[in-house]
Specification:
Layout: H1 3-18, H2 41-54, H3 68-79, H4 83-114, H5 121-145, H6 170-198, H7 204-220, H8 227-238, E1 240-244, E2 248-249, H9 258-272, E3 280-283, H10 285-294, E4 319-354, E5 360-392, E6 398-420, H11 439-465
Helix pairs in contact: 1-4, 2-3, 2-4, 3-4, 3-5, 4-5, 5-6, 6-7, 7-8, 9-11
């Protein structure tokens, strides 16, 4: 491979590896480049060749830097005992060590030139990549330096000793780590300053963006200045708070407070996963009732769009979900029995016969018998219908709404003997009558589907406001 070809190849790799900076901050990652310990020489030789093959494919899906194959080759050579393996691993290193090491050093120089002036998050990424390249070179060099000299000697006639010009990068790695830490400080300072600018107003979106900036600063440098306190305050001001009201129930009382169960399900789901969304919180019913009482407001009739204007005075809440359960019914029925026929081969006797060697033997005589069983079926189903709205407190606008209906079904099956040979009855058939499931339990299953559907819509809303 020519030097120009090597250069073009690594420029393509660099573009592939640097592309994450366009997506999120911070985007860097430092790698240790440790290889699996305790394996045999065949394993390391195989891994070396696999990684070297990947390193010639710019479309390889794995995150790698050129040289991981050398790590495995070096480790394999260090522990190899068989002459064949030693010779093969020497050849891998002889062919690949110089050009890969030189190419990595070229990439380091390019990254140094690109990151000489701090230009934001991408500079930190580039500094991290310099550390990664140096670390990788340093790691396979360390292994080679501690490999017994005899492993570099020719193992076969007409072969030459393995001679590698091992280039020390220890000093370069130290300097690169210092430059990386300095770049992180600069990035933290940049995001901190931007966060302060964005947090000057009361605008929710502005504070949301400010909180993200303070979070970036902390990700670069933990405990950076007072970024944590500023993040907490900006997040508080940028968070959308959804009030969870009690869903009204217009259903038969024997099924319990279905509306209350939905409200509890919603609240429980978000309390269990409170940190799932950065800029979204729920306010439980007690807290919401207190806010309403303080401001002399009522949730009564909020499903009627003509009354939503009163929400404009609801301080401390950005949106509210209201709803009701309009139907809960259950039905049971028994189906007419159905006759089912089953067959089975059973032993009815024995007979003697002579095999191909002239020996007399005994074998079973079988015949097919049948039985007719009565299949009994019980069916039950329950249906729950509900509606909900997510309302904007400031405007009374409907942010999301839906009418939901779910039906849960149950079936019980058992069999009774009708006529025929009982030996043909399959063991799998249930012979005990199945009692009906309780209506309350079946209604609960349908209600769970309603709650899950509402929760999914709230999750979508939480994701929207957390952008």
């Amino acid at each position: 491979m020519s030097r120009n070809t090597v250069k073009d190849f690594f420029l393509a790799i660099a573009f592939f590896l640097l592309s994450p900076f366009l997506v999120a901050q911070p985007n860097f990652q430092l790698y240790t480049f440790n290889i699996k310990k305790g394996e045999g020489e065949n394993y390391y030789e195989r891994e070396a060749k696999r990684n070297l093959e990947l390193e010639t494919k710019t479309s390889a899906p794995e995150r790698f830097l050129p040289g991981v194959g050398l790590l495995n080759a070096a480790q394999g050579l260090k522990i190899a005992k068989r002459k064949g393996s030693i010779s093969d691993l020497q050849e891998v290193l002889r062919i690949n060590y110089d050009w890969i090491t030189e190419s990595n050093l070229m990439e380091i120089e390019d990254l140094k030139a690109q990151s000489e002036v701090f230009e934001g998050d991408n500079t930190v990424y580039q500094k991290a990549e310099i550390v990664n390249y140096y670390t990788l070179i340093n790691n396979y060099n360390k292994i080679l330096k501690t490999t017994p000299p005899t492993k570099f000697e020719a193992q076969r006639k007409k072969e030459d000793d393995l001679k590698l010009a091992i280039k020390s990068v220890t000093e370069g790695l130290t300097v690169a780590k210092e430059a990386f830490e300095s770049a992180k400080e600069s990035a933290a300072e940049m995001h901190f300053g931007k966060g302060r600018e964005l947090a000057r107003g009361e605008d929710m979106q502005g504070n949301k963006e400010a909180a993200k900036r303070f979070r970036y600063a902390l990700q670069y440098v933990p405990d950076f200045r007072d970024a944590q306190a500023r993040y907490d305050e900006a997040r508080r001001l940028g968070t959308t708070r959804l009030g969870i009201s009690t869903f009204e129930s217009f259903t038969a009382p024997e099924y319990g407070d279905l509306g209350g169960q939905i409200s509890n399900d919603i609240l429980g789901r978000f309390l269990r996963n409170g940190d799932e969304f950065e800029f979204f919180e729920v306010i439980d019913r007690d807290a919401l009732d207190q806010i309403l009482a303080e401001q002399k407001l009522s949730l009564s009739g909020l499903l009627d769009e003509s009354t939503t204007a009163e929400l404009g005075g609801l301080a401390g809440v950005n949106s509210i979900i209201v709803g009701n359960v309009t139907q809960a019914s259950a039905d049971r029925q028994r189906l007419d029995p159905v006759a089912r026929t089953y067959e089975k081969k059973i032993k009815v006797g024995e007979e003697k016969y002579t095999d191909e060697n002239g020996k007399e033997k005994t074998r079973d005589i079988k015949e097919t018998v049948s039985v007719i069983m009565r299949e009994n079926n019980k069916l039950s189903n329950a249906t729950v219908s509900a509606s909900f709205k997510i309302l904007d407190v400031a405007t009374g606008a409907v942010l999301a709404a839906d009418n939901l209906t779910f039906t849960s079904e149950w079936e019980g099956v058992w069999y009774t003997y009708l006529r025929g040979n009982k030996k043909a009855i399959p063991n799998r058939l249930n012979r005990t009558e199945v009692p009906f499931i309780s209506e309350a339990e079946l209604v609960k299953r349908a209600l769970n589907n309603v709650s899950n559907s509402i929760n999914r819509r709230i999750v979508e809303y939480a994701q929207e406001v957390s952008q």
